[in-house]
Records
---
Amino acid sequence: MNNSKKKSLRVKKYLNIINKIERVRSKNNVNWMDVLRLALKHAPDETIKLMKNINKKDKKISNLFNSIK
């Protein structure tokens, strides 16, 4: 088998794994949203504060990623 064929098979394998991860993550995102709803019902002020902090860190991650371009 030549290198091009091997590379193609490897890429196909990786894409298949990524598709599986995507399906699991989509289901897990529902769980995260349920946790968020529960937290908001029982401790809304604390939940909003935590979510703002998470959002700040997510923005920092995005900015760092964008600096790679």
---
Amino acid sequence: MQFLVKVMSLALAIFLIASLMPGVSVNGMSDAIMVSLVIILLNIFLKPILVFLTLPITVVSLGLFLLVINASIILIASNLLHSGFKVDGFGVALLFSILISITNSILERISQRLDNRQNR
């Protein structure tokens, strides 16, 4: 159940930000769900490898290089999903990943609070 909430929360964040941000396009909510699934899978399987390989750079940059890794994952997802999701460049992907992280964090907090209210 938590995985489904995570997928839907990320899909909603992707759909909202893509509709507001120039340079990012998603065709609909079903494509946003596909994008969220691909990003989650890339974060599970590819991100740990990238973090390990770039550990010295990440340490020297005090963790800021993780933003580059997140933007790279967005670009990889855009390349994997040829139809339905498009990101225009690295700078757009960087800003998009930052906004997605913030929005997704807010949506997950709302979801947790609603879940806590139901459990009382």
---
Amino acid sequence: MKYAYCVVGWHFMEPFFRRLYEDPADKYIISHRDEDFVRRQPVFPLIRDDVYYCENRGLDWGAYHQFNEMGYYRQYDFVIYIHDDVIIKDLRFVQAIQERFRDPALKVLGNGRNGKDAEFYFGKYRDRMFFQDRDDFLVRTVRGSFFAAKTDIFDVIGNFPVHWKAKTLKKGNISLRNFAYLVTRHFGIESIGYLDDEHYLETRYLIELKRGETATADSPLR
């Protein structure tokens, strides 16, 4: 399966990019920083040909929307959408994604489980949803810091729904929930899965940083 990375460019953490570039797959870095800032980063010589400078709107989901708007995703079977402060422990997460995506019913794959399905039902977040549904409709979610998505879903759901005025992580979750709703509504709750159903921010493959700190610093997986 042919794939690429869409990276949210904000922190420009050198260890992340050094590890990422061990994988020869295509990379599209959507920078919400200006070019002067990016050029000053130590990692710039490595990433310079893959950076696209976009207006800083809509947080991470805005960057993903901007990438999809360029149309490059259509060349690939799936895209890995990822923040540039994720710690890559094991690059074999790509093979794990490819193996899981052999299931045609699976459309989106996160890292660790993003809470129980029962924690999200439509009525609980009705005032933050762009759509209408019955209050007891369950939605399975993935975090914006890492997920892989089969590109054919966008033929059905369109581009990522984005709360463009979002300025905080809490507001950014509006976009997350609405994307998850569209996938769940069109493809079913089982169309969203995880590399690891037993853990949250850290799995054998990746650590997703939460507000600059690892939430599972004492995890035996490290």
